[in-house]
Design a protein that fits this description.
four-stranded antiparallel sheet, 92 residues, alpha+beta, 4 strands, Beta-lactamase Inhibitory Protein, Chain:B, domain 1
């Protein structure tokens, strides 16, 4: 791969990360409104920023510009969502 192509790919990846973090909690909640299954949620919002698993229960966290949105998934069903401030900012 040439240096120019590698540089362009790096910039594209960085731009994608910035755009992903610029979404608001309200935007994430609105886009996920009709998602009832894990597949529908992933289709609506993409891969989560973090996944925590405990048996058949998964907690999917999506980072937003103004905090985060958390979905609780049991089996294949999205059962709960919560939005809150960014935890790292609260610890300061």
């Amino acid at each position: 791969m040439t240096r120019t192509v590698a540089t362009m790919l790096a910039w594209a990846l960085a731009a994608g990360l910035i755009v992903g973090c610029s979404r608001s909690k309200e935007d994430l909640i609105e886009k996920s409104r009709d998602a009832g299954t894990r597949a529908e949620l992933e289709k609506a919002l993409g891969k989560p920023s973090d996944i925590t698993k405990l048996g058949p229960i998964e907690q999917w966290t999506y980072k937003a510009a103004n905090g985060s949105v958390v979905f609780l998934i049991v089996g294949d069903k999205v059962t709960l969502q919560a939005a809150g401030p960014d935890e790292k900012k609260d610890q300061k």
